[in-house]
Amino acid sequence: MRCVAWDVVRRSVGLEGGVPGCVWAPAGCSRSPVVLLGHGGSGSKQAPRIERLASWFAGQGITAAAIDGPFHGDRVQHPLPAAEYQQLIADEGVEQVTRRMTDDWLSLLAHLAAASDVDADRVGYVGLSMGSRFGIPLAAALGTRLRGAVFGKFGLQQTASMHPALETPALITGAARRITAPVALYVRWDDELFPRSGQIELFESFASVDKVLVCRPGPHNGTHPDDEPAWCQFIARHL
Protein backbone atom coordinates (compact mmCIF):
# COMPACT_ATOMS: atom_id res chain seq x y z
CA MET A 1 0.00 0.00 0.00
CA ARG A 2 1.15 3.58 -0.64
CA CYS A 3 2.94 5.65 1.97
CA VAL A 4 0.70 7.91 4.03
CA ALA A 5 0.44 11.58 3.13
CA TRP A 6 -1.47 12.80 6.21
CA ASP A 7 -0.43 12.46 9.83
CA VAL A 8 -2.78 10.00 11.55
CA VAL A 9 -4.45 10.75 14.88
CA ARG A 10 -5.86 7.69 16.64
CA ARG A 11 -8.32 8.01 19.51
CA SER A 12 -10.74 5.85 21.44
CA VAL A 13 -14.46 6.58 21.44
CA GLY A 14 -17.02 5.49 24.00
CA LEU A 15 -20.63 5.86 22.91
CA GLU A 16 -23.82 5.82 24.96
CA GLY A 17 -24.69 2.27 25.91
CA GLY A 18 -21.08 1.26 26.34
CA VAL A 19 -20.19 0.87 22.66
CA PRO A 20 -16.36 0.78 22.43
CA GLY A 21 -14.81 2.25 19.30
CA CYS A 22 -11.64 3.62 17.74
CA VAL A 23 -11.21 6.41 15.20
CA TRP A 24 -8.20 7.04 12.96
CA ALA A 25 -8.38 10.54 11.52
CA PRO A 26 -6.18 12.54 9.15
CA ALA A 27 -4.74 15.34 11.29
CA GLY A 28 -6.22 18.72 10.49
CA CYS A 29 -8.81 17.36 8.06
CA SER A 30 -12.49 18.09 8.80
CA ARG A 31 -15.57 16.59 7.14
CA SER A 32 -13.54 13.91 5.43
CA PRO A 33 -15.15 10.80 3.92
CA VAL A 34 -15.31 7.92 6.38
CA VAL A 35 -14.78 4.19 6.06
CA LEU A 36 -16.21 1.83 8.68
CA LEU A 37 -14.12 -1.28 9.37
CA GLY A 38 -15.76 -4.47 10.64
CA HIS A 39 -13.51 -7.10 12.22
CA GLY A 40 -13.85 -10.86 11.89
CA GLY A 41 -14.82 -13.45 14.47
CA SER A 42 -12.46 -13.66 17.47
CA GLY A 43 -11.00 -10.28 16.45
CA SER A 44 -11.58 -6.77 17.72
CA LYS A 45 -11.48 -3.10 16.72
CA GLN A 46 -7.73 -3.26 17.39
CA ALA A 47 -6.98 -6.32 15.26
CA PRO A 48 -3.78 -5.97 13.18
CA ARG A 49 -5.71 -5.88 9.90
CA ILE A 50 -8.02 -3.15 11.20
CA GLU A 51 -5.00 -1.13 12.30
CA ARG A 52 -3.32 -1.52 8.89
CA LEU A 53 -6.39 -0.57 6.90
CA ALA A 54 -7.33 2.31 9.19
CA SER A 55 -3.82 3.79 9.08
CA TRP A 56 -3.79 3.59 5.28
CA PHE A 57 -7.16 5.29 4.88
CA ALA A 58 -6.41 8.04 7.40
CA GLY A 59 -3.08 8.64 5.70
CA GLN A 60 -4.97 9.26 2.48
CA GLY A 61 -7.32 11.81 4.06
CA ILE A 62 -10.16 9.39 4.83
CA THR A 63 -11.28 8.92 8.43
CA ALA A 64 -11.54 5.29 9.52
CA ALA A 65 -13.56 3.95 12.43
CA ALA A 66 -14.15 0.57 14.05
CA ILE A 67 -16.22 -0.80 16.93
CA ASP A 68 -16.04 -4.10 18.75
CA GLY A 69 -18.49 -6.71 17.53
CA PRO A 70 -20.99 -8.46 19.81
CA PHE A 71 -19.28 -10.37 22.64
CA HIS A 72 -15.86 -9.27 21.35
CA GLY A 73 -13.12 -6.89 22.40
CA ASP A 74 -13.97 -4.49 25.21
CA ARG A 75 -17.57 -5.72 25.30
CA VAL A 76 -16.37 -8.75 27.27
CA GLN A 77 -13.94 -9.22 30.15
CA HIS A 78 -11.74 -11.66 28.23
CA PRO A 79 -11.66 -13.13 24.69
CA LEU A 80 -14.27 -15.83 24.12
CA PRO A 81 -13.82 -18.97 21.99
CA ALA A 82 -15.89 -19.12 18.82
CA ALA A 83 -18.33 -21.71 20.20
CA GLU A 84 -19.05 -19.52 23.22
CA TYR A 85 -19.66 -16.20 21.45
CA GLN A 86 -21.69 -17.94 18.75
CA GLN A 87 -23.88 -19.45 21.46
CA LEU A 88 -24.35 -16.05 23.09
CA ILE A 89 -25.41 -14.56 19.74
CA ALA A 90 -27.82 -17.46 19.21
CA ASP A 91 -29.24 -17.02 22.73
CA GLU A 92 -29.94 -13.33 22.19
CA GLY A 93 -31.19 -13.96 18.65
CA VAL A 94 -29.24 -13.24 15.48
CA GLU A 95 -31.76 -10.71 14.20
CA GLN A 96 -31.74 -8.82 17.50
CA VAL A 97 -27.92 -8.81 17.63
CA THR A 98 -27.81 -7.61 14.01
CA ARG A 99 -30.18 -4.73 14.76
CA ARG A 100 -28.10 -3.81 17.79
CA MET A 101 -24.88 -3.78 15.77
CA THR A 102 -26.47 -1.67 13.02
CA ASP A 103 -27.69 0.83 15.61
CA ASP A 104 -24.23 0.95 17.21
CA TRP A 105 -22.57 1.68 13.86
CA LEU A 106 -25.13 4.37 13.02
CA SER A 107 -24.63 5.94 16.46
CA LEU A 108 -20.88 6.14 15.86
CA LEU A 109 -21.44 7.72 12.45
CA ALA A 110 -23.85 10.27 13.92
CA HIS A 111 -21.35 11.07 16.68
CA LEU A 112 -18.58 11.73 14.17
CA ALA A 113 -20.85 13.80 11.93
CA ALA A 114 -22.09 15.92 14.83
CA ALA A 115 -18.52 16.84 15.66
CA SER A 116 -17.94 17.78 11.98
CA ASP A 117 -15.23 15.13 11.86
CA VAL A 118 -16.68 13.37 8.81
CA ASP A 119 -19.02 13.81 5.90
CA ALA A 120 -21.71 11.27 6.79
CA ASP A 121 -22.97 11.29 3.21
CA ARG A 122 -19.71 9.72 1.95
CA VAL A 123 -19.35 6.38 3.73
CA GLY A 124 -17.44 3.24 2.82
CA TYR A 125 -17.37 -0.14 4.53
CA VAL A 126 -14.85 -2.99 4.69
CA GLY A 127 -15.57 -6.17 6.61
CA LEU A 128 -14.99 -9.87 6.03
CA SER A 129 -16.44 -12.97 7.69
CA MET A 130 -18.26 -11.68 10.79
CA GLY A 131 -17.55 -8.22 9.45
CA SER A 132 -19.71 -9.12 6.46
CA ARG A 133 -22.40 -10.79 8.58
CA PHE A 134 -23.07 -7.51 10.38
CA GLY A 135 -21.79 -5.21 7.66
CA ILE A 136 -24.28 -6.19 4.96
CA PRO A 137 -27.32 -5.15 7.04
CA LEU A 138 -25.49 -1.95 8.01
CA ALA A 139 -24.74 -1.21 4.35
CA ALA A 140 -28.42 -1.63 3.53
CA ALA A 141 -29.39 0.73 6.36
CA LEU A 142 -26.97 3.40 5.10
CA GLY A 143 -28.85 3.66 1.81
CA THR A 144 -27.47 6.31 -0.53
CA ARG A 145 -24.88 7.41 2.04
CA LEU A 146 -22.92 4.26 1.25
CA ARG A 147 -20.51 4.90 -1.63
CA GLY A 148 -18.79 1.50 -1.74
CA ALA A 149 -18.32 -1.69 0.28
CA VAL A 150 -15.97 -4.66 0.43
CA PHE A 151 -17.30 -7.94 1.81
CA GLY A 152 -16.01 -11.50 1.74
CA LYS A 153 -15.45 -14.87 3.39
CA PHE A 154 -19.18 -15.09 4.03
CA GLY A 155 -22.21 -16.51 2.27
CA LEU A 156 -25.81 -17.62 2.47
CA GLN A 157 -24.82 -21.14 3.52
CA GLN A 158 -22.57 -22.37 6.31
CA THR A 159 -21.06 -25.68 7.36
CA ALA A 160 -21.74 -27.72 10.49
CA SER A 161 -18.75 -26.13 12.23
CA MET A 162 -20.86 -22.99 12.79
CA HIS A 163 -23.77 -22.69 15.23
CA PRO A 164 -26.89 -23.55 13.20
CA ALA A 165 -28.80 -20.52 14.50
CA LEU A 166 -26.31 -18.23 12.75
CA GLU A 167 -27.46 -19.30 9.28
CA THR A 168 -29.95 -16.58 8.31
CA PRO A 169 -30.13 -16.45 4.49
CA ALA A 170 -33.40 -14.50 4.41
CA LEU A 171 -32.00 -11.72 6.62
CA ILE A 172 -28.80 -11.39 4.57
CA THR A 173 -30.48 -11.71 1.19
CA GLY A 174 -33.05 -9.08 2.12
CA ALA A 175 -30.28 -6.67 3.08
CA ALA A 176 -28.16 -7.43 0.00
CA ARG A 177 -31.10 -6.67 -2.28
CA ARG A 178 -31.28 -3.15 -0.82
CA ILE A 179 -27.61 -2.37 -1.49
CA THR A 180 -27.08 -0.42 -4.72
CA ALA A 181 -23.64 1.09 -4.07
CA PRO A 182 -20.58 -0.51 -5.71
CA VAL A 183 -19.62 -3.78 -4.01
CA ALA A 184 -16.57 -6.04 -4.14
CA LEU A 185 -16.99 -9.58 -2.78
CA TYR A 186 -13.92 -11.69 -2.00
CA VAL A 187 -14.46 -15.46 -2.04
CA ARG A 188 -12.16 -18.09 -0.57
CA TRP A 189 -12.63 -21.00 -2.99
CA ASP A 190 -11.92 -23.70 -0.38
CA ASP A 191 -13.65 -21.98 2.55
CA GLU A 192 -14.42 -24.58 5.22
CA LEU A 193 -16.98 -22.35 7.01
CA PHE A 194 -18.95 -20.81 4.13
CA PRO A 195 -19.31 -22.98 0.99
CA ARG A 196 -18.44 -21.20 -2.24
CA SER A 197 -21.93 -21.80 -3.69
CA GLY A 198 -23.45 -19.72 -0.90
CA GLN A 199 -20.84 -16.99 -1.35
CA ILE A 200 -21.57 -16.77 -5.06
CA GLU A 201 -25.30 -16.77 -4.33
CA LEU A 202 -24.69 -13.82 -2.02
CA PHE A 203 -22.88 -11.98 -4.81
CA GLU A 204 -25.86 -12.51 -7.09
CA SER A 205 -28.17 -11.06 -4.42
CA PHE A 206 -26.58 -7.60 -4.34
CA ALA A 207 -28.67 -5.06 -6.25
CA SER A 208 -25.53 -3.12 -7.18
CA VAL A 209 -24.96 -2.57 -10.90
CA ASP A 210 -21.25 -2.06 -10.21
CA LYS A 211 -20.10 -5.20 -8.41
CA VAL A 212 -16.91 -7.24 -8.53
CA LEU A 213 -16.37 -10.90 -7.59
CA VAL A 214 -12.81 -11.95 -6.70
CA CYS A 215 -12.12 -15.65 -6.03
CA ARG A 216 -8.93 -16.90 -4.42
CA PRO A 217 -7.92 -20.51 -3.76
CA GLY A 218 -7.47 -21.53 -0.15
CA PRO A 219 -9.26 -21.84 3.20
CA HIS A 220 -11.27 -19.31 5.19
CA ASN A 221 -8.39 -17.68 7.04
CA GLY A 222 -6.15 -17.02 4.05
CA THR A 223 -5.69 -13.66 2.36
CA HIS A 224 -3.80 -13.04 -0.88
CA PRO A 225 -1.06 -10.37 -0.56
CA ASP A 226 -2.72 -8.25 -3.24
CA ASP A 227 -6.11 -8.19 -1.53
CA GLU A 228 -5.73 -5.58 1.20
CA PRO A 229 -4.31 -2.95 -1.20
CA ALA A 230 -7.14 -3.74 -3.62
CA TRP A 231 -9.78 -3.27 -0.91
CA CYS A 232 -8.29 0.11 -0.01
CA GLN A 233 -8.12 1.29 -3.61
CA PHE A 234 -11.70 0.13 -4.30
CA ILE A 235 -13.10 2.12 -1.37
CA ALA A 236 -10.90 5.17 -1.94
CA ARG A 237 -11.92 5.30 -5.60
CA HIS A 238 -15.62 5.35 -4.77
CA LEU A 239 -15.31 7.83 -1.91
From TrEMBL:
A GO molecular-function descriptor: hydrolase activity
Gene3D superfamilies for this protein: alpha/beta hydrolase
Chain ranges passing through the membrane: none
Domain Dienelactone hydrolase: 21-176
Name used for this protein in its record: Dienelactone hydrolase domain-containing protein
InterPro entries according to UniProt: AB_hydrolase_fold, Dienelactn_hydro, FrsA_esterase
Family to which the UniProt record says this protein belongs: Belongs to the AB hydrolase superfamily.
